[in-house]
């Protein structure tokens, strides 16, 4: 007889032990116990071994380390779609688990996501600690559950909850999972002990197979509404994406036919999605978001500073939002302004932002108060001497920034990081105003700073590795995606968006309407067209930057004509009620004949022959302008990898995630085709369209930006 704790290696990845009459199957596949090859087999071996052991009355399956199973091994998908790895077939294994004669108790901590939840649902019971989460996030990878998730989840949790989880991909916490029927019990204290105890209690009792439970499936009237509402919501919130609709279809099939028929339909939908470009793009984004944290010349064990106190200079839109990020992370933050009025206005906006979240049920009033209590207001540098980081978020002017950096250089403690939220200006020049350039770095947040995920971290020539490493870790703590950029005008994002916006404006000068340009890009998948985006951000922001850099403009090179004129007319966009569009009191935009007349007048004055322009040309001229400049940024080392550029655009500029980012999109079009178009534009529009040398080289070699990253 096996004594308690006897270890039998079922495979490298799954352990088999016994605690009296309960067999314990433990998955050991760090970091997240993904269902890599060998894991499903090991689980099955363990269950079969327990089934054959007369001393065993029940079985517990549990994850070793920090979590249960976080899903199929996403790293395998590329091999499957490339045909070098057989297709995923978890079904038979899950049916065998379900057919176990002895009750199988799934013990969940951390996350049971995707295939992890599907394995758990093939068990007869599921118990979890209160901090556990369960979910089917596959749609975030452009796929759907591929191992019976869309068939078992409605049987446990009901059709509405299953549609919500499978089509939108958000996890649910243990309390919700218990309430809706996914979990049977929440374990207080040690999970394994609780699960073994639970297993003993159910030993010998009749155990239901999830696939045979149908009581929650059949409410035709209600189901019809559930599917219709979900489809409408998916079309609106997951615009352009195919997987959410496929997931809804798979759940719908579960309500109509047998379990096995449902699994067949699910499998064919899963395969269609897995082999789609959208899925490849979303998986590219998933791994890219983790890749950007890896900086080749900054070792993982680089010393970092402890950020326990922050200070922000400027309580404007950006400063207030930045301060909220620190308060949200539980880091006390001082906000300094120059007048009480500006301070009060800024704090009022912070309070309104939190109240909005409370009103939407996203935040409890208690948490709002906790966060507000982290914020201290001041009109002086009082308290700055204790700060571990000071973030400057004032007006985008070099003179003012240098003055501020020279002031805080005298006040801040030696190990305090001095960060600028500048969106474009030279970090080295700002650092030159201090005696500690090694402590100076760019922390470029994106508006609204408390919402947008992207944090562009700009290293100056002198910025120390410790300050960079601290900044990358701080990004995660602030729930941001930190991307490291080199120092140049506009860094990564704004340098590229300058070219994108330039082409959008050229297109309206050449004959496209304002609405046509914005609609073409909205239909491509952008959250908002470039001209509408300018109106939202404020046309005066770009106007001020153009004036700051006027002296750098090359004579004879075409520049946009209209935006500066709009600003001269006081048309800054939404904030003044008019820009490219005119806005009613609800900020609803409409076309403005004044703008049309202005465009025609300026085009005529510049001798620009207006013509009918296709939507395809609009998309190519604007998106390839991003790609061409992105290739230059890559070649200059301003971005470490092409995927870093993609992550910037997915998290800071509303680029459709299911297209993977501008560089991934260019790879899917084929760099040869992209180069050909750019060369056409160069012939027609001159040097602004000179192909980036790296793009030209990769295209001529038949390579991709992905291959560049792989070198
Ligand atoms: N496969 C392979 N690697 C994974 C992985 C996965 N499923 N999940 C995470 N990793 C890697 C990740 O790349 C990183 O690697 C490390 O683990 C830590 O991850 C059959 C077909 C679980 C909430 O979509 O949501 O199941 O950078 O930094 O912040 O129907 O990882 O260290 O080299 O994110 O603590 C469905 C995806 C798959 C879950 C943990 N499952 N993962 O977050 O750590 S499809 C998912 C996550 C599927 C079935 C279908 C998160 C996490 P590296 P991390 P974390």
What does it look like?
- This protein is an alpha/beta fold and 711 residues long.
- The protein folds into three domains: 6-274, 2-enoyl-CoA Hydratase, Chain A, domain 1, CATH 3.90.226; 310-485, 3-Layer(aba) Sandwich (Rossmann fold), CATH 3.40.50.720; 493-637 and 641-710, Orthogonal Bundle (N-(1-d-carboxylethyl)-l-norvaline Dehydrogenase, domain 2), CATH 1.10.1040.
- Strands 13-12-11-14-15-16-17-18 form an eight-stranded mixed beta sheet, sandwiched between helices. Strands 1-2-3-4-5-7-10 form a seven-stranded mixed beta sheet, with helices on both faces.
- Helix 5 (149-157) crosses helix 6 (159-168) and helix 25 (615-635) packs across helix 28.
- The chain starts with 7 loop residues before the first strand and ends with a helix.
- The relative contact order is 0.06.
- The chain binds (2S,3S)-3-hydroxy-2-methylbutanoyl-COA (T1G).
- The site of (2S,3S)-3-hydroxy-2-methylbutanoyl-COA (T1G) has 26 residues, from strand 6, helix 4 and helix 12.
């Amino acid at each position: 007889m096996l004594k308690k704790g006897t270890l039998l290696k079922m495979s490298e990845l799954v352990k088999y032990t016994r605690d009296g009459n309960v067999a314990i199957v433990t998955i050991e596949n760090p970091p997240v116990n993904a269902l890599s090859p060998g894991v499903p087999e090991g689980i099955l071996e363990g269950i079969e071994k327990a089934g054959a052991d007369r001393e065993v009355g029940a079985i517990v399956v549990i994850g070793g380390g920090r979590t249960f199973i976080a899903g199929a091994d996403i790293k395998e998908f590329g091999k499957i779609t490339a045909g070098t790895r057989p297709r995923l077939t978890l079904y038979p294994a899950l049916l065998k688990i379900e057919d176990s004669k002895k009750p199988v108790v799934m013990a969940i901590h951390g996350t049971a996501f995707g295939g992890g939840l599907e394995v758990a649902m093939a068990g007869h019971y599921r118990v979890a600690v209160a901090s556990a989460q369960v979910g089917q996030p596959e749609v975030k990878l452009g796929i759907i559950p591929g191992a019976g998730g869309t068939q078992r989840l409605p049987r446990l949790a009901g059709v509405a909850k299953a549609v919500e989880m499978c089509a939108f991909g958000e996890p649910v916490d243990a309390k919700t999972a218990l309430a809706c029927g996914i979990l049977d019990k929440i374990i207080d204290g040690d999970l394994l002990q609780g699960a073994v105890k639970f297993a003993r209690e159910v030993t010998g009792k009749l155990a239901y197979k999830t696939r045979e439970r149908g009581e929650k499936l059949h409410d035709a009237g209600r189901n019809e509404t559930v599917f219709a509402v979900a489809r409408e919501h998916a079309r609106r919130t997951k615009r352009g994406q195919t997987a959410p609709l496929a997931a809804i279809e798979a759940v719908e099939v579960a309500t109509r036919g047998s379990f096995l028929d449902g699994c067949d339909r699910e499998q064919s939908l899963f395969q269609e999605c897995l082999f789609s470009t959208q899925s490849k793009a979303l998986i590219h984004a998933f791994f890219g978001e983790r890749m950007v944290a890896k900086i080749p010349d900054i070792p993982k064990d680089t010393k970092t500073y402890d950020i326990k106190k922050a200070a922000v200079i400027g309580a404007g839109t950006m400063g207030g939002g930045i301060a909220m990020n620190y308060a949200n992370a539980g880091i006390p933050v001082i906000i300094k302004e120059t007048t009480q009025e500006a301070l009060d206005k800024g704090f009022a906006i912070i309070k309104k932002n939190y109240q909005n979240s409370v009103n939407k049920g996203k935040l409890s009033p208690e948490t709002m108060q906790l966060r507000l209590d982290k914020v201290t207001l001041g009109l002086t540098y009082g308290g700055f001497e204790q700060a571990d980081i000071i973030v400057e978020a004032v007006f985008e002017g070099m003179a003012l920034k240098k003055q501020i950096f020279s002031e805080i250089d005298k006040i801040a403690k030696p190990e305090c990081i001095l960060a600028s939220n500048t969106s474009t200006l030279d970090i080295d020049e700002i650092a030159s105003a201090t005696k500690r350039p090694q402590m100076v770095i760019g922390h470029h947040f994106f508006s609204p700073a408390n919402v947008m995920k992207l944090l562009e971290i700009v290293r100056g020539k002198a910025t120390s590795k410790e300050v960079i490493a601290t900044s990358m870790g701080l990004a995660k703590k602030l729930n941001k995606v930190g991307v490291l950029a080199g120092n140049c005008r506009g860094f990564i994002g704004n340098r590229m968006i300058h070219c994108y916006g330039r082409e959008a404006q050229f297109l309206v000068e050449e004959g496209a309407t304002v609405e046509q340009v914005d609609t073409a890009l909205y239909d491509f998948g952008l959250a908002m067209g470039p001209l509408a985006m300018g109106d939202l951000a404020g046309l005066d922001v770009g106007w001020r930057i153009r004036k700051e850099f006027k002296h750098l403009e090359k004579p004879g090179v075409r520049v946009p004509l209209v935006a500066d004129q709009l600003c001269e007319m006081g048309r800054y966009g939404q904030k003044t009620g008019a820009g490219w569009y005119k806005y009613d009191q609800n900020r609803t935009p409409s076309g403005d004949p004044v703008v049309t007349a202005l465009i025609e007048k300026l085009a005529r004055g510049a001798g620009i022959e207006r013509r009918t322009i296709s939507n395809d040309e609009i998309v190519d001229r604007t998106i390839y302008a991003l790609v061409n400049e992105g290739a230059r940024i890559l070649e200059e080392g301003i971005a470490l990898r092409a995927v870093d550029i993609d992550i910037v655009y997915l998290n800071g500029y509303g680029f459709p995630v299911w297209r993977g980012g501008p560089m991934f999109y260019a790879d899917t079009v084929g760099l040869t085709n992209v180069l050909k178009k750019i060369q056409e534009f160069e012939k027609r529009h001159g040097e602004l369209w000179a192909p980036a040398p790296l793009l030209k080289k990769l295209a001529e070699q038949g390579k991709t930006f992905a291959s560049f990253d792989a070198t």
